[in-house]
Amino acid sequence: MTNMCKCSIDDIELHYNYAPPTDIGRTKLNLGKSEIVLASTNIYKSNQVPVGYSFTQIPASAFEALDVDISNDSALEDLTSTKYLMFPPKGT
Fold it and tell me: Which of 86, 17, 7 is nearest to 49 (CA)?
């Protein structure tokens, strides 16, 4: 989103929780019903006006491989808006 937006993104509002994956997430990420994901909605803003959003599900099993500190909001923002997009799910 930050690379494709015609406006300058000056704020990302991050909303997240840890939960089982949605049906789509379970299918696309090849996860079991009992696995946990970081479910994140990011709202991208330019001059305090929302210009886009994203919804991402990241398997908890990926945190260590991606070397992310899940207790740090800045690291989670980087993970959900940039870092995870560079690592497609297995089998894609």
Answer: 7
